[in-house]
Write a structure and sequence with these properties.
The chain is of the alpha/beta class. Helices cover 54% and strands 10% of the residues. Among the domains are: 81 residues, Arginyl tRNA synthetase N-terminal domain (Gyrase A, domain 2); 225 residues, HUPs (Rossmann fold, 3-Layer(aba) Sandwich), CATH 3.40.50. The chain is built from 21 helices and twelve strands.
Length: 560
């Protein structure tokens, strides 16, 4: 934007604002044409002449300076070439000075963003289906912090509902403490599956499950002790996965936390005339907004997801006074979020507009889908472990004498899982492939990590290098520097669009441009002048790759 604004100001086209000129800029298909292109077709009506003539006239009057070295007209486009030496010097000096802070800003200063993500279910497996919400939310958390926001990560635990009555029944009838302590969530899942198998033969079990859940709600000592034990076992199991993925939370306030906070919400809905009765249930009618009614209370008086989400949103606003509250939840819940956001709007909460549903597609493995009730699940921990094992095998094959093979394999394997989940737009369904994720030559995490390790290898061989200066640039050097320049704006766009995949794609572009430069140009066997510049460029590349991958939660091993 700095260059675009500079050009627009210098041009001073009568009858057209600087902002309008800036909005028209495009990128030429080839940097040999220029770095910025201004199409003149929209000026034809104003000047009553052809775009070709307009472009030629503007080119003839434009005065180049220390920022813009060339201005040419071509087929109705005005093409501008930046002063590459000036650009390279400023970009490199900024990266090498700021290092791990390059790309960061204080744009979010004094503003809080609450991010609701992962939100695992107690006593149920942390499976491959939780991968997207966990890594998208984790990346957004780091991105917002990097940009100066006070980010609050919330794991809205699924710790409320009849399933806990089912589990208590199953434990009391089919389980024992020793087996549960030993197998933890996998044993709890076995009991849950056993319950559903038996309930298909005896429908009365569902009544008994509801009775047990009612005992939890009423504070029964034994049932609550079992419920809290199940919760403790689940969190112990998932803690390791969160540590592997470098995901943290500031709050584990789940559905049960809002048990005593729903009544005031129901009262307010009633007082504002929003609560209506329908077949014994309590609803908010949303027909006027082309939506089905939002269920608040079932006919038996039980609360629902919407009731608890309303209470949670109100609590979060009161507790955190957020600037934005994001819900990283699959697109299947689109209607739910539209409904409860609209209910808050009807309750005249001015901050309802600050709630955002960050939707994403489904994730599965190549061999199909899953069902918790049938026990057909793939644990996320198993997916990570398999990727780590495969990474270890690849290291043994390619570099058997590598130090710290186990740690490096873990960083590569975990990185492959995260990068694979964030490799495409979040709204797309994802089929996770072990082989694709661990490809060292494709658009993958290992490819970017390997490029970082290559940069560090070059720098280690060189040792300390002298002062550098930029006097001339070849096309590969300029293309790489021009890519490094984009990092701050890429981070900003990823934040604004809630799209971490912008950073994964960007990192691949940086790695690709560095590798082209690396293979086509000498670095160490050059004159000191050229060598020092290329080492500075290599160091800057390593800094940007590390900063980018760290925002995704991916480690950067220095040797691979």
């Amino acid at each position: 934007m700095y260059y675009k604004n500079h050009i627009a100001k210098k041009m001073n086209i009568q009858g057209i604002s600087e902002n309008d000129v800036v909005s028209l800029f495009t990128t030429p298909p080839d940097t040999s044409i220029g770095d910025y292109a201004l199409p003149c077709f929209k000026f034809a009506q104003i000047f009553r002449t052809s775009p070709v003539i307009i472009a030629n006239n503007l080119a003839s009057t434009f005065e180049c300076d220390e920022l813009i070295s060339k201005c040419t007209a071509l087929n109705g486009y005005l093409n501008f070439t930046v002063n590459r030496v000036n650009l390279a010097s400023s970009v490199l000096s900024e990266i090498l000075e700021k290092k791990q802070n390059y790309g960061s800003s204080n744009v979010g200063e004094n503003r809080t963003v609450v991010i609701d993500y992962s939100s695992i279910n107690i006593a149920k497996p942390f499976h491959i289906g939780h991968l997207s919400t966990t890594v998208i939310g984790g990346a957004l958390y780091r991105i917002f912090k990097f940009l100066g926001f006070n980010a609050v990560g919330v794991n809205h635990l699924g710790d409320y509902g009849t399933q806990f009555g089912k589990l208590i029944y199953a434990y009391k009838n089919y389980g024992n403490k020793e087996e549960v302590e030993k197998g933890r969530v996998k044993e709890l899942m076995r009991l849950y599956v056993k319950y559903h198998d038996e309930a298909e033969k005896d429908a009365s079990l569902d009544d008994k499950a509801r009775e047990y859940f009612k005992l939890i709600e009423n504070g029964d000592k034994e049932c609550n002790e079992l419920f809290n034990w199940f919760k403790e076992l689940t969190l112990k199991d998932v803690k390791k996965v969160y540590e592997d993925l470098d995901v943290t939370f500031d709050s584990y306030a789940g559905e049960s936390f809002y048990n005593d906070k729903m009544e005031p919400v129901i009262k307010e809905l009633n007082e504002k005339g929003l609560l209506k009765e329908s077949d014994g249930a309590k609803i908010v009618d949303l027909e006027e907004y082309n939506m089905p009614p939002c269920l608040i209370l079932r006919s038996d008086g039980a609360s629902l997801y919407a009731t608890r989400d309303l209470a949670a949103a109100i609590y979060r606003k009161q507790h955190y006074d957020f600037y934005k509250c994001l819900y990283v939840v699959a697109y299947q819940q689109n209607l739910h979020f539209k409904q409860f956001f609209k209910v808050l709007d009807l309750m005249q909460k001015p901050w309802a507009k600050d709630l955002e549903h960050v939707a994403f597609g489904m994730v599965s493995l190549e061999d199909g889908t899953m069902s918790t009730r049938k026990g057909k699940v793939v644990f996320l921990e198993d997916v990570i472990n398999k990727c780590v094992e495969k990474a270890y095998d690849i290291i043994n094959e390619k570099n058997a004498n590598l130090e710290n093979k186990e740690q490096t394999a873990k960083e590569i394997g975990v990185g492959a899982v995260i990068f694979g989940a964030l490799s495409s737009s979040r709204i797309k369904d994802l089929v996770f492939s072990y082989d694709k994720a661990l490809n060292f030559d494709g658009e993958t995490g290992p490819y970017c990590q390997y490029t970082y390790a290559r940069c560090k290898s070059v720098l280690n061989k060189a040792g300390e290098y002298g002062e550098y200066s930029v006097t001339e640039l070849n096309e590969d050097e300029y293309n790489l520097i021009n890519e490094l320049k984009k990092f701050p704006s890429i981070v900003m766009s990823a934040m604004e669009k809630y799209e971490p995949s912008m950073i994964t794609r960007y990192t691949v572009d940086v790695a690709s441009k560095y590798n082209k430069f690396y293979f086509e140009h000498k670095i160490l066997n050059e004159t000191d002048k050229v060598k020092n510049f290329r080492l500075a460029l290599t160091e800057a590349t390593s800094i940007v790759i590390k900063n980018a991958l760290s925002l995704l939660g991916i480690k950067t091993p220095e040797k691979m």
